[in-house]
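Fill-in record for Fe2OG dioxygenase domain-containing protein.
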Amino acid sequence: MSDSDFEESEWPFGGKGEPEDVPVPSGTARQISNVLARADEQAGEYSFGGQAETLPAAPGLVVNEVGSIPVPITAELAQKLIEKCSKSPFGQNLETKMDEAVRQSWQLEPTQVSFENMAWQSGMEKLGQVVADRLGYRDIPLQCVLYKLLVYGEGGHFVEHQDTEKEDGMIATLVVQLPSSHEGGDLVVYRGGEVRHRHDFGKADGTSAFLPHYAVHYADAEHALEKVTRGYRLALVYSICLPPTMRHLEKAHDKPLSEDLAGLIGNMDDEDEPFALLLSHEYTVKNIQDLGTGALKGVDSARFHALEEANTLVPTAKQLQFFIVRLTHKIEFNPGRNMSWIRGNRSESMRWYSISGKSFGRARKSTKFNFLNPGHETLSQLWIPHGVRQEEEYDAKASVKKLKITKYTRYALAMWPTAKHPGHAMEIMPLNVAVQVFHAQKPVDAATLRAFMSNIVARSRAEAGDPAFVRGFFNNTKVEMRKKYPLVHCLGLGNLKGNGSLAPVFTKIARTFDWSDFGEAFLDALVSTHKHKDEEEERIGYSSLEMALLFLDGLDSGAARDALFKLVAKKSVDLTSEELCSCKVVGLLLKWVVHNSTDSAVDKVTNTFKQLDPSLLRPSLLENALECFNGGDANDDKMPDAQFPDNAKVEEFLHSPAATMTMTKGVRKFKGVRKFKGFQDASNYAAKWMREAQVNASFEMEASAIYADAVVTITKTPKWFAEGQHTLGQYKVELAQLLEYAGETNSYARKRTRLG
């Protein structure tokens, strides 16, 4: 991997410039990038928390004159502990007061508390580093000074208030809740008079009684402890302080970074493009799917939380939509003369996730992002360290040749305003997401619906790699045609190659929206026939009548079904014997026209069937479907849709009928897969990929040594096949229904004798 991969100044996902150039985003994104640049050295999060992973679940808490306090504390021991405590006061106008209506809890001084578990102190030191980073004091040794041990019983609470400065140089408060079995007692942090953060200390996920949790807020942040409704809560309160020699570094957090960002987000221009923030750390698919943005580390976490917090300060209509996206830029190199390599094709793809880690799938297209660059990195720094080169072998006319591939892969946070979400989802996200987003938009006017239909057709076929479709789709773009036909890009659906794939999309639209908004234009597009130029007949798709039958069969009732049925009945009357025999959906024709029609169409279609020339009959498509179900090899171990992003040869094996393969430098058909440095390297590799999500596949990986060479053996397991049996059963039921509609039986599983 080197700058020479981009010597034409074309960088991944729309980047342009020389390797040493520092890319600068355009529009409002430029200002957002500049504000985020302060995150590393200036801004911190206003409040944050979660599971205290650095701390042991059993702290070994010991209280003077009480003894060891196991957690979660029992009611009996809690009462014994409370007897040694004093009631907690509160400060008001420089006075210390006692009022259980304001605060009800008990407290112990730090001199009365100790921890026998040696891991507690080291864990607190590590937690202190996390807190410092997220407060914006990276590499500053903040001090965690224990202030009090607090005990809250049923009814315990503390109304909205601000902490007083308990130590010199105090900048924030850290609350560590020991494993506690209780209900209620959330810590609520306010900002501008509104609730901005709520810390439940693990109650929502059921871990509060088993693991320690923590919460941090600035010392002067308004906050409250909601009433404990059951059980007891043990909490350690620490003051987070700057070291005496560094108190000049205290930040002015009266207007944190998030407020500056919120101002920019709330005033984004309509023309602003989708923008993205490249993540600085490396992440695995499993990390992202399991944790989403919770997997983010260091500066990635700080930047995202700053954006996320700013987003909460913006009106809902102006807020940003956040997504995680895995960007991949692939370059192929072909062998040239004199041991040289010639740069060949480039391709790009994006795999999308929600911020919770839900996978939306992959979009196989190239997109230009407006990249933020808060670290002021050069193009070379942004991409070159993230490239991986692989060698693959392919069969070119029976002679095995090598192909080098370099993949540049980075995770990024993609974002755009909510108002722009439908448009950007259609442009750059997987089609299933675009359909879901559009489906959630109600009401939608006719013009918007028609534009969406045009776009969905264009993308679905373009991404399928059908140049003929793309040419045909965009040939009908003359101004006068657009004026005459609202669905100009959908003109000529009849006979268009691959048009059957559009049935689910149009059926969902017809089920969701008012037929009067788009029905007339849709029928115009449906009855028009696509004209093929210099193409073989076998490339032609479903006819207008066949497409209408496919759409009709997906509808239950309503104006759309009535209109399509009327069209089917009308067009079926004019069928010739030859057209009837060549119909790809003859079963649906019988179902809808013969079984449902009450007019003369029945008689005419029935007579056409009766007058058929037997020599015209062709094998039913249902026969082919039966062969797919019944003719397969029960011992076939193919996993045709399996994905293994790290190694193309492993993915090839998963697609093949082979049951096992060995990863090493020179084994039969998988020669050149990978060479391991030693057994530990092979073992680490196997363990890594067993932790990863197995996509459309199930297998096991095990490291071993063969003649002193370290190898990894991959064995397919039946889990994936077992899960597929349920879907297969559904398909068979549907097939049986089609056979019934067509009046056919399972005899089609055998070779049918030609009549005549």
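KEY FINDING: The two ends are 67 Å apart (CA to CA).
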